[in-house]
Predict the structure.
Amino acid sequence: MKVTLTVNGRQVTADCEPRRSLADFLRQDLGFTGVHLGCEHGVCGACTITLDGATARACCLLAVQAEGAEITTVEGMATDGELHPLQQSFRDHHGLQCGFCTPGMLATAAELLRETPSPTEAEIRERISGNLCRCTGYQFIVDSIADAAKKLNPRDAP
Amino acid sequence: MKAAAFDYVRASSVDEALRALTDAENAKVLAGGQSLVPLLNRRLARPSLLVDINGLDLSSIRRTDGHLVLGALTRHRAAETSALVSRDLPLLTEALRHFGHVAIRNRGTLGGSLAHADPAAELPAVAVALDAELTIRGKHGLRTVSARDFFTGTGQTELEPDELLVEVRFPVLPARTGHAVEELSRRSHDLALVAVFATVTLDEDGVCAQARIAIAGAGPTPIRAIAAEESLRGCVLTPGLIAGAAREAAAATDPADDLHAPAGYRRDMAAVLARRAITRANGSAR
């Protein structure tokens, strides 16, 4: 089946079988290799993307379901060569170690900061509990998200 | 971890979905897909056809004659953040926070969760606790099944292969009702090892007019602990009375042994969680 969708602001069309997962479609057919596949059954969160404004597990969606959708992958977070404040913060705080969980962590954190601009540490930990870091580098990731929140919302900072 | 091949139809009306379900030998309905797609990926489900109902207009949340009616395609996250749900069915709002992580709640649907009928999932037990009614469309029209009759076994429901669950009707909770969800799971937002859902409604004198207790993860279907509820009705709830009702609730369970917990542990935990849930529901009803 033909699937037309918008990825990182660019409209793309490609053919795929109905059984193709959105994760495989984005990664293998469209070349957005920032979509990482870990468990492929919704547990690890590595494939988390933003679909029509809300996070989703790309492994738990079929590509054919994304017809007409607007998707943001990690490749779409930076603008004009400027890293997203979350990306910069992950860099500053050593929040990416092997980098495998990072794209999913960034999508999850970006949604958290949209909904809760000044999250507590507990709220950050709760939100990223659906994204597994195989380096167990959670503390640096929590620090990264907390710092990005401060930079994005300096007035709300405690 | 790749699904076997299947055909796919995107239904544009309930009638079209029903026709596709009737015509195919081994069709499955695709709603949020958060339970079904993992099963497909692991080839534990191998349907010949998926009928995608995401294009249907079945996601409204509305209040009618003492009921809150939620369309089958209502996403978990939409229900969780709905002011109507938190006002009229706060037990559901609290329970929704235990469902999968946010990315999963963004996609998962109420109807899908009920039709999937996982005995360790929260929503089937909430529906049983709150005496929900499920509206089902088939080729001969609409029929209604109470949540208590809907679940017939692990993954088994009253739904026929050519029927579609279209909405869930929850009676709105009366005034002076407290609620609580107590859940034990191996990691946050995972399916429950055991979970207890309770409401307590007090009369003007602080006497328990009605208690509702349902348990997930302790049998092939959600369990409604009727004897425990009856033991509380008409009484001012004391710690001793609540502990007795909690033991009664645990006695109504029928847990199985599995990799993660032996049956005896689940039964003991059902009593512990029921005591906590009834205590907290009673406390918040005042």
